[in-house]
Amino acid sequence: MDQLLAMRIFCTIVDAKGFSAAAEVLGMSHSSVSRQLKQTEAALGVQLLNRTTRGFTLTSAGERYHRHCLDILSRVDAMTHAMSGEREQVSGALRVTVPLAIGTLELADWLPAFQSQYPDIALTLSCSDQFVDLIADRFDVALRISAAPLADSSLMAKLLTTSDTVLVASPAYLAQHGLPSVPADLVNHRRLASVRPGQAAEWSMTDAAGELHRVPVAGGFTSDAIPALFSAALAGAGIAAFTERTVRTELARGTLVRVLPQYRMGAHHYYALYPRTRHVNPRARAFIDFMAGHYGRR
């Protein structure tokens, strides 16, 4: 058994939060991913995941194995990167279009490291949540965040990560207006929501028993720009919904606080899209691989 491959598959299952999502990231079939996990558990002689009808949880052995895998794989990747000087240097112009959340709120998390790793790539970044025709507008790569799997198209799609949707508010807002204990309490709060044509003007969430709760967002503050909602939430204007990755830094700092964490609002998928060609632009491939590594780190 290829132990490094087994480790990568296991970490991808955990990070992607599912076998199907992991299979898409790895370019493997669902059955192959599942079979590899069974072989890993058999080789280790321990159960790594507790499987349920709704997904899985890590066993205590799985948590320890996951920590060791991340450490080992990070060392292997660092060694590979250190030896990469022998490869042909990647340089030239690269045009990328990204959602506003990635191009503004998450920019500091990845841009400096990308520039350090690829100093000879001249990156042009366009930030927009609107549909962009990669071919007509001459973009090399598009990053997109979607609440549902992407529809079939002429483009290639690589799933980079999946991030839970969470409700948050500033400590100042919650101190003044109180902390909701059930979804029905939200109707008495200021709701900051992203509403676009064709989307339901409501938040949907499920409790531990699987019961669905719907909360209307009409009457609050709505915007089609995630950064505007982010600024409003930080300013104490109300409760908003974001992907956990978008607000990870603020949650760690305590400038934003989770609201109703015991309820689930689904997840959003981060994709890299690029034209379907036989040979991918090396600059585009470098960017896609870099972002996959960035989002693959916990």
Question: Can you tell me about this structure?
Answer:
The chain has three domains: 3-83, Orthogonal Bundle (Arc Repressor Mutant, subunit A); 92-160 and 269-296, Periplasmic binding protein-like II (D-Maltodextrin-Binding Protein, domain 2); 164-267, D-Maltodextrin-Binding Protein, domain 2 (3-Layer(aba) Sandwich). Strands 3, 4, 5, 6, 7, 10, 11, 12 and 13 form a nine-stranded mixed β-sheet that branches. It has helices spanning 3-16, 19-26, 30-44, 60-83, 100-105, 107-117, 171-177, 226-234, 248-253, 282-296; strands at residues 49-52, 55-58, 92-98, 121-127, 141-146, 155-169, 191-194, 202-206, 212-216, 221-223, 239-243, 257-259, 267-275. Helix 1 crosses helix 2, helix 1 packs across helix 3 and helix 1 crosses helix 4 (60-83). It is globular and about 55 Å long. Helices cover 39% and strands 26% of the residues.
- Count of separate structural domains: 3
CATH architecture assignment name of the largest domain = 3-Layer(aba) Sandwich
Please tally the helical runs, counting DSSP H or I stretches of 4 or more residues.
10
Overall geometric form: globular
Helices and strands, in order, run as HHHEEHEHHEEEHEEEEHEHEEH
The portion of residues forming beta strands comes to: 25-35%
How big is the Rg?
A: 21 Å
Separation of termini?
26 Å
